[in-house]
Amino acid sequence: MVQLDRILFLLFIFTLPMVVMAQHPLPLTMDIENNERDLNFESSNAYNTNDPNNKNSFWINAGIGVGTPGIAGIASASYQFLGSNLLSLRGAITGELFGDELWDIGLLYGRATTAQDYHASISAGLAVMGGSRSSGGLFSDTPREEVSRQVGFPIGGQLFWLPSRFIGLGLSGFANLNGERSFAGLAFSLQIGKLK
Fold this sequence. Notes:
This protein has 196 residues and is mainly beta. Helix content is 10%, strand content 56%.
């Protein structure tokens, strides 16, 4: 079983460099035919929010992977606006095949990169979480115990490669911190939408 601290550590390692770059882009200058051009991603025409040709990004993604406990699944709908602002509606679930199951549905706000060939983000918010516990095995007559629904604090991170304008492939990490039983997961995901 993958431990929560290992997943959170991997999520942190994967997303931190990209988030830092999104927050503090480095202006680059190059000489093209003796004319200097500014390649700062935040101020270039490709990401100038005042440019009418620049439209916001939106996508859905879904994936499956490992979590605490057992296997994990994630699905989300995201909207990136005004440069690097990100708003997501996310559902996540982790569970053992015949054991405990935990889930959440939440609204998250975060920051994302605005690069052309990759996409990284990190976000946090509020969620409703719940689930069930199995006190017996597969053939046990003991009924499942419901985990009471309560507010949790979801955290999410994504790292995607964008081979086209409409498809992305990568990793989605998630965690939910709550008073009942915190859980996390890391999933290989497919991203579909208007990505760049």
